[in-house]
């Protein structure tokens, strides 16, 4: 059995030694380990992948026992995550995830897709995945989100993927799924926050556009960044051309970020991610 | 003799036909032509490189005669531009330009280097290029700039290259050299305008940093962008590491932009560049 | 109506002038033009997009009349191309094309998919596109290809896209569809020609892998290259990891090449492409 | 004091634990550690950076004592390496290294430059670095190399950097400096091995060119690769244009590789590098 161990603690001499000592005592073989010490606040982060027979409880208990009290320890069995996808009308990110899921390459089970329009229903249902439309017309943001949450929660998803879900989420909604909402934004943040980033990019006359996948926090487009990719453009790209060209970067950036999240490679410290690739 | 012809005009049927008709009549052979029509305002831009014997005046006159009255026509003989470089203390961009100049690859004559510190004097003088230090201590911005201009103007440079010149320029200074000031900014604008962009980038936790070369206008870091390049970074890059890594992107981006400018490949429409590569 | 005009000829003074003269006389407005003169053999290539009412025949006739006799002229109405896709078992390239087609972004009509295995049938049939399996077991290459051609030809496709079709094609097959076969090869050619390029890449210890989309000629993996993209890898990538990571580059590179082909932006001179973007 | 510890051994349970146990016992604080297990041959590689007071000998002895007998242990104090540069006529790589050295950014002391032509003498001597020309005219390869080695060896360099040294080295020469010769080759190997890679690239019509920095072995251009970078090109690039454009990639790739080598981040297993960034 393959397990992932994540440790976070105030830095101290011996943290790697003590952690790998537990692995040694339980005869767990290390497949890979990565450490990082945030230099400003001297905070230690570690991810290890181990193979062996010991059970999760024993492993967790031993780690907690030997590591300093303030250490945060997480032990995960390597397995596909359960997710729900939210979308609006655009098919490129969702379609890409559906194809990866179909081919067994997503490392996740798509439990359902929830959208605020009917547009994507035929595409989703081709893949025999439940599609629910929760229209937002005539509803306040909070009322609409209450309905959405009623659809999400029975799935008990570990992550909710915003695959071009084009509505701003309320702090209440975000608070309900802390560090579990993964978004794709169609600019290389922090450039072009908010609506219509390709139009903003065109107006500014940039020569590079991009996409950013991030965890969602209260602050619009300001959550911890997981992955960013860019694409050169020229004066001959209209805002619409940029949007067309940007689709490929968006879908690849989202898929890249999800791979990292689903393999428990993303740790968060304040507003920054530590990514153990 | 090789010449570059730049034409800008309100779009109309026959502009390419009329322009190339002049070349045909003067037996000028086209090496390359590029056109672009700005679709919003229907504005036509064209760059042609031609080889042949006709003189510049005849060529210009014929083009003005046949093209619509509103057309702006520029005829340039292909040759190295005369430039002055401004710098502060950092050597990576300036050093890169000095090496290219030394190897005959800059497509420009560096007439002199002007800095507000003495730091770079030994480097510049190795290459037998005049170095002038105009310290800014104890001077108002305008008084300092007046002294700088006194040093620049006798050189009669066609372009002034800001190779990590770390002082903000006044609108008066900018107005004195319209579309002739080329700057390198150490972020992929419009992200991280202003001071200390690498610290800003670190704080935001971006996964991509970059550099932007642009023409300078009154508005800080908001001038028409010529070239942008990026570089991936990780959580393990401190702001200082980003600055170190960013140096290579800065120097290459500046050199790329200068190549385009010195070969008359950059046209400007409002705040956007048209680049004919 | 929007039309694309492609001209190829021995270089001579006045070719652009004469071509755009025809547009002028027919009151066709130029949306864009691009020219290239191959400097070794002085061969002229031009692509123009024009808008206006004249019919294709008149346009073609006038161009042939005014241009030198040796000129090759092609006039295309801008419209989706009719294509057939060939595949084997892998779904990433095919799936990506199916999603683009579904979203109306492929600029082509997929008339059918032909594979040498049944694996991909369920995926293709989700999208209501005819799927034909032509198994190759027990057949000689030529016999198998004869059966494949019987399936292809009734569709009368303009292009045949090899979306990870994993069998080598005979010169006879290639000759039947000159410049109409577009392939994706999973390496940055000419590195790692032939079978198992990711294993070859792993063995060589490269730090960059890539994909190449090219027109198919008799010579295995040696046809004119349309598009290439790359991806950094590290020592920690096994050959299998490279193959996984490479899928995204493969599908994006193929889609990029097809966009160029379907918009008539690819001209061929000997074994090299001229791409008018 | 900051030290770098490199460990290589047949994989076994407890290697990280035992290594970090030594650090713990000597009160050395880990700044970073990286491990890799080559999965085919189960070979373990580790790099650690530690801070603390223990002396190198004690550290080395303890590691050897506790790790399996077959383990290879290397302890390095973090400090600039002593190097000699070899070149021919081209200035872009050498000039870039001279500027970095001048700015204190190379992490190495350039003890001298040896070339087979006089061309680069003025450039090198500007920086007050000894330049020696060892002309090869009229000499056999081995005789010439014997003279070169007579110039190199008194410097006792840790690494020899081939900054566009355009002569093939004999196996004897290579054997004299095992894993200490770093070369820059002007193609993304293994494409375009040998002479005139840009011409080869032009002939093949590639859309991407690149550069490769590698350790030199007997086999021409086949040594372990340290770094590779690429650059898009188009049909309009002649072989000469590619060579011009390629210079920037060459110099940046070489500098990138040298940074890794000089910080003891490169381990070698057979013909592949393990790079701990």
Oligomer type: homotetramer
Estimated helix fraction of chain A: 25-40%
Q: Could you give the order of strands across the largest sheet of chain A? A: 7-6-5-8-9-10-11
Q: What is the CATH superfamily label of the largest domain in chain A?
A: Formyl transferase, N-terminal domain
Query: Could you tell me how far the N terminus lies from the C terminus of chain A, measured between alpha carbons in angstroms?
Result: 20 Å
Poorly predicted regions of chain A: none
CATH fold category name of the largest domain in chain A? Rossmann fold
Number of strands of chain A: 13
Q: What's the story with the biggest beta sheet of chain A?
A: 7 strands, mixed
Mean pLDDT of chain A: 95
CATH architecture of the largest domain in chain A: 3-Layer(aba) Sandwich
Q: In CATH, what is the class of the largest domain in chain A?
A: Alpha Beta
Q: Could you tell me the strand content of chain A as a percent range?
A: 25-35%
User: How many domains, in number, for the residues of chain A?
Assistant: 2
Rounded to the nearest angstrom, the radius of gyration of chain A is 21 Å
Helix/strand-derived class of chain A?
alpha/beta
**What's the helix-strand series of chain A?**
EHEEHEEHEHEHEHEHEEHEE
Active site (chains A, B, C, D): 221
Domain ACT (chains A, B, C, D): 4-82
InterPro entries (chains A, B, C, D): ACT-like_dom_sf, ACT_dom, Formyl_transf_N, Formyl_transf_N_sf, PurU
Pathway (chains A, B, C, D): Purine metabolism; IMP biosynthesis via de novo pathway; formate from 10-formyl-5,6,7,8-tetrahydrofolate: step 1/1
């Amino acid at each position: 059995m393959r397990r992932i161990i994540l440790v976070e603690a105030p830095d101290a001499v011996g943290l790697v030694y003590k952690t790998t000592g537990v692995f040694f005592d339980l005869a767990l073989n290390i497949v890979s380990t990565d450490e990082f010490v945030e230099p400003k606040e001297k905070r230690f982060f570690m991810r290890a992948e181990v193979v062996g027979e010991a059970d999760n409880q024993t492993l967790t208990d031993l780690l907690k026992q030997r590591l300093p009290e303030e250490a945060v320890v997480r032990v995960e069995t390597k397995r596909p995550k359960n997710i729900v996808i939210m979308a609006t009308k655009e098919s490129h990110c969702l379609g890409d995830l559906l194809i990866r899921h179909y081919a067994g390459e997503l490392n996740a089970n798509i439990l359902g897709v929830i959208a605020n329009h009917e547009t994507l229903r035929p595409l989703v249902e081709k893949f025999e995945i439940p599609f629910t439309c929760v229209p937002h017309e005539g509803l306040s943001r909070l009322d609409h989100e209450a309905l959405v949450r009623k659809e999400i929660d029975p799935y008990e998803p570990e992550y909710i993927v915003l695959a071009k879900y084009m509505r701003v989420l309320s702090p209440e909604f975000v608070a309900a799924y802390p560090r579990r909402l993964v978004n794709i934004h169609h600019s290389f943040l922090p450039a072009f926050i908010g609506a219509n980033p390709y139009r903003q990019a065109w107006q500014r006359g940039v020569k590079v556009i991009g996409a950013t996948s991030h965890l969602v926090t209260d602050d619009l487009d300001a959550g911890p960044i997981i992955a960013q990719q860019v694409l050169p453009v020229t004066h001959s790209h209209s805002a619409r051309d940029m949007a067309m060209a940007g689709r490929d970067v968006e879908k690849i950036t989202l898929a890249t970020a999800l791979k990292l999240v689903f393999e428990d490679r993303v740790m968060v410290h304040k507003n920054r991610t530590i990514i153990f690739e």
